[in-house]
Amino acid sequence: MIGQRVTRQRVAIAELLEDVDEFRSAQQIHQMLQQRGQEIGLATVYRTLNAMAEQGHLEVFLQPTGEHTYLRCEPRAEHHHHLVCRTCGRTVDVAAPELEQLVEALAASHDFTDVEHSLDFLGTCRDCARA
Asked: HEC profile for 65-79?
């Protein structure tokens, strides 16, 4: 975590996020830390998650409720998106080369360069749809 002091709290949060496969809210992460016996304040969890996201260590997904959720993604050479189950939070990384081509074409048609974007898809996974 470049730019941040390495503290017990930051290490505990980073270690927990290595074990999480779905987007989770700060409150959920805080609760999971407590279940692991880590006494870390909720404000510290929020600050650390925001700092990690700003540094590119976490992906942030804005839930329809307006709540930010976080996921540690493996560094990839190519840009990717997510399919997120609105019921259980299951998250699948997806490459979408057609979408990337569309973004490039939109940018070019409006004389923009160096365009960044974030697009995730919210739906219901097969297991939740069966339930």
From this structure: CCCEEEECCCCCCCC
Give residue 61's Cα distance to chain centre.
5
Tokens 């730019």 belong to residue? 3
CA distance 64 to 9: 29
What pTM did the predictor assign? 0.72
Residue keyed to tokens 């299951």 = 90
Residue 23's SS3 state is coil
Give the pLDDT confidence of 56-105 residue by residue, as tens digits. Answer: 888 888 888 889 999 987 665 467 888 889 888 888 888 888 988 999 99
CB-side exposure of 85: number of CA atoms within 13 Å? 15
What residues have CB less than 8 Å from 111, skipping those under 6 apart? none
Number of Cβ within 10 Å of residue 30's Cβ equals 22
Residue 103 to residues 53, 96, 97, 116, Cα–Cα distance (Å): 23, 11, 10, 9
